[in-house]
Amino acid sequence: MTLQEQMAADAAELATSQQTGISLDDVTNLANKQVQLEEAVTNAEEGLDVAKEALRCVSERDLPALLTRAGLTDIGIIGGKRVTLNEDLYASVSADRRDAAHKWLRDNKQGDLIKNQIIVEFGREEDDVCRMVTEFLMKAKLPFDRKEAVNPASLKAFVKEWLDRESEDPDLTPLPRELFGVFVKQVTKVGNSKKTKKGKRK
Prior knowledge:
Layout: H1 3-15, H2 24-70, E1 72-76, E2 81-90, H3 98-107, E3 114-120, H4 127-130, H5 137-140, E4 144-150, H6 152-168, E5 183-192, E6 200-201
Antiparallel strand pairs: 1-2, 1-6, 2-5, 3-4
């Protein structure tokens, strides 16, 4: 069936339907509108990614570097806003360091940070098997994967706390920073200023 024949058939079907007062033009217009909106959403998402990367470059690279060269950590700008330079700590455990990092946590009594996840694959009509608890998995000989991970926010909080303790307790086991991907990044924040202050130097 050609495209023209298909369109004619669709129009005929619509004309004989019980939904009186609806034309093929009505359906076409709304369908075209849907396509346009889907394209608009895609473009907006792509534009958002570009904007986020541009913001990261300014707030984490360009503006911090400028303030650092000027020896400033806080300064009021034209328009009544205020720029502050802060340091933010980051930590992450990559896949190739995961086992060693988790061993260090357990060895230093921080194993509670590690969350265990067991993923089981079930076929259709296996709801009864799905309800089985973990201790029966091996007995049922079901294939499953076990994953261990530390929540990123929990890891960041732990690293900050441990480093603070390190500075106060010389006997505390030093945190292996490379193992936990620890680094400090300068970030600028721009907000409204209620008072007019002189620039604060380092």
